Amino acid sequence: MSERTEWQFSDDRGQLSSAGRRPSRVLAYVQAGATLWDHGIRPSGIFGSDHDGESPDRAKTGALPLTEVDYLGAGSVLDVDTLLRGGPDLVVAVSYGGGHVYGLAPETAKHLEEHVPVVVIDVGRARTLADIGDRFAELARSLGAEEGGSAATHDLQAARERLRTLATGPSRPRVLALSPAEQDQAHLARPRMWPELRVLAELGVDVLEPAAGPGANWSTVGWAEAAALRPRILLTDIRSNATPLDRLRSNADWTALERAAAVVPWNPEPVCSPQAHAHFLTLVADAVEAAQGR
Fold it and tell me: What is the CATH number of the domain that holds 115?
């Protein structure tokens, strides 16, 4: 598609965005920006959510060159004037369902669309990780990216097959995904609600399901209850809004968990590219292989 050709893209709300030429100054939610970068599209700017702060969360930014990409901030500072500061000709946002723009106040998102096209990609539980990845790839191609590299696709397939083989081995180590919440609590992830965790389950990994109760995405429990699940592998949330692990050292139940299980970093807002997903699957496979050898 040449720049002289009218650009169009239908997003996951079913809303058609169009422009007289292909957008070249893309402002994106940090997860979307990192994913587009892996596809060869450099965003001019990124923004965060209410979970983020004055600096970009390195757990979410993937391979983005942060010295070259403007970070506009997060939360209440994200008014329309701030978002338009760099003159974007396209905004790429994400949604967790219902078409709601994640990270922006509803009124801000509404008024933003009066000035610039906004494309929303659904990254919620209703979509598979493959579907999400395909949509980002389709968007990237519309913005000028070349077809996905065969090397990244090959690496992802190899990582999937390796993990599938290990998961069907003589033992299946129990895997628990969680987000630390201060010294006395943990948010245990409900695997079916997170596309990346569903992939692990589909490949045969024994991803533990918290007990039924309140909380659609997470079950909030004390560390003793988490330890009672006896996981061999812990997928721990490394985003900046999660409690750093070094602040849990005084908690005996966490210490027992850490001694008994391998700790693997997990970003619940993953970069949705083949290379990023392959890297995550490789980390999990390494932990499964090590646990089977113990």
Answer: 3.40.50.1980
